[in-house]
Design goal:
Bound molecules: adenosine-5'-triphosphate, magnesium ion
Protein name: N5-carboxyaminoimidazole ribonucleotide synthase
Distance between the termini: 49 Å
Strand content: 25-35%
Radius of gyration: 21 Å
CATH class of the largest domain: Alpha Beta
Pathway: Purine metabolism; IMP biosynthesis via de novo pathway; 5-amino-1-(5-phospho-D-ribosyl)imidazole-4-carboxylate from 5-amino-1-(5-phospho-D-ribosyl)imidazole (N5-CAIR route): step 1/2
Largest sheet: 9 strands, antiparallel
Family: Belongs to the PurK/PurT family.
GO molecular function: 5-(carboxyamino)imidazole ribonucleotide synthase activity
CATH architecture of the largest domain: 2-Layer Sandwich
Keywords: ATP-binding, Ligase, Nucleotide-binding, Purine biosynthesis
Shape: globular
CATH superfamily of the largest domain: ATP-grasp fold, B domain
Helix content: 25-40%
Length: 390
């Protein structure tokens, strides 16, 4: 009996446990909260990730360790890796935890990125603003997710005058400056992208590499709202994206599934960030691909052969944020699938998702239209419908 240990007990751990059941796997999930939703399907060890006694207990009870979220302290991952195999490796996790390290690696691998600057002080911010200009985004280097820990600097009224620039800098520094020492900051140019895309990819313990087709994503207030796959893109652009993902995986000696988030601007791809885990933009693979990201992540970390990443028709995933809508309109669709994460409702929280799947773009657009109308979610489905009909 193989037991997979997962650090973090959110919906990703929950979906990993669900995917692992047919493979005969056991799980042990570690989380700081007794309410962690993966605990509804797998034994839950409640403890602090920095508590050596809790980590030792966890390590003793599992055969391999992986992650549901990337903000587990890298030292804890390193401590565990001296006792039990940990995938992805703590070095890769460490790079993906830090927006600055991640962007420097992208550059080193000739993966284009938006202009950025490391910000350690208010003086750094002023200098970077003079170089990068507005609009731009100040982000924490570490610990951000779902658009948290970010401040958007918009061109101020009277734009360009030194006083106007100082005013936006003051606001940004008031919002995030107090965190500069603890989590670091980075300033990034705002990319007026045409589309957001992601590559969900995997690398095995034997170095084998594969990706699911490119996914197109739409965010609302920094949080993923909808994903459509396969994205309609020029095949050469898709090849470029897969090449970026492959070079990253090889450079990091990465094992498991990861996502590379990309902005597409004027036909060029700019890398946003690397998520060192299964990813929200890959949830559609559960019903929309031969093998899901969750199953293939488990196969990868266990050293098993990867399943095919071939798509089944066309799929669109809709995130439910804050609270779940009525499932009936989705369940009424032939290709409608419902995922309730078993979490209590809370503003801004990802509480579930739906995936609609169909054999043709026309059929998927029609199903999205019906579902969107019935749920009063027309604005959430509209971009995907437009992309399918485009
Ligand atoms: P998550 O890990 O949940 O994807 P995050 O908190 O790490 O989110 P980002 O991915 O950096 O945040 O940003 C969230 C979203 O905000 C992006 O997907 C994109 O829509 C928008 N965004 C972030 N950075 C930029 C940028 N430089 N230019 C334009 N839009 C951006
Ligand atoms: Mg992120
Ligand atoms: Mg992101």
């Amino acid at each position: 009996m193989t037991t997979v240990g997962i650090l973090g007990g959110g919906q990703l751990a929950r979906m990993l446990a669900l995917a692992g059941a047919p493979l005969g796997l056991r799980f042990l999930v570690m989380d700081t909260s007794a309410e962690a939703c993966a605990g509804q399907f797998a034994p839950l060890l409640v403890g602090d990730y920095r508590d050596e006694a809790a980590l030792a207990d966890f390590a003793a009870r599992v055969d391999v360790v992986t992650f549901d979220f990337e903000n587990v302290p890298a030292e804890s991952a390193r401590w565990l890796s001296a006792r039990v195999p940990v995938f992805p490796n703590p070095g890769a996790l460490g790079v993906a935890q830090d927006r600055l390290a991640e962007k420097m690696l992208f550059r080193e691998l000739a993966i284009p990125v938006p202009p950025f600057a490391d910000i350690a002080s208010r003086e750094d911010l002023d200098a970077a603003l003079a170089r990068i200009g507005t609009p731009c985004i100040l982000k924490t280097r570490r610990l951000g997710y779902d658009g948290k820990g970010q401040f958007r600097l918009k061109p101020a009224p009277g734009a360009g005058t030194p006083a106007a620039v100082q005013r936006v800098a003051d606001q940004a520094w008031a919002a995030l400056g107090p965190q500069a020492e603890r989590v670091g900051l980075i300033l990034e140019a705002f990319v007026p992208f045409d589309r957001e895309l992601s590559v969900v990819a995997m690398r095995g313990r034997d170095g084998s590499f594969d990706t699911w087709p490119l996914t197109e994503n739409w965010h609302v207030d920094g949080v993923l709202s909808a994903s459509l796959a396969p994205a309609r893109v020029d095949p050469a652009l898709a090849e470029t994206a897969y090449g970026h993902a492959r070079r990253l995986a090889e450079a990091l000696d990465y094992v498991g599934v990861f996502a590379l988030e990309l902005f597409c601007h004027g036909g060029e791809l700019l890398a946003n960030e690397l998520a060192p885990r299964v990813h929200n933009s890959g949830h559609w693979t559960i019903e929309g691909a031969e093998t899901s990201q969750f199953e293939n992540h488990l196969r990868a970390v266990l050293g098993l052969a990867a399943g095919a990443t071939t798509v089944r028709g066309h799929a669109c995933m809709l995130n439910w944020i804050g609270e779940l809508p009525d499932p009936a309109p989705v369940l009424a669709e032939a290709g409608g699938h419902w995922h309730d994460y078993g979490k209590s409702p809370r503003a801004g929280r990802k509480v579930g998702h739906a995936t609609l799947r169909a054999d043709t773009p026309e059929a998927l657009a029609a199903a999205l239209q019906r579902g969107g109308d019935a749920l009063g979610r027309q604005s959430q489905v509209a971009p995907a419908i437009a992309a399918l009909r485009g």
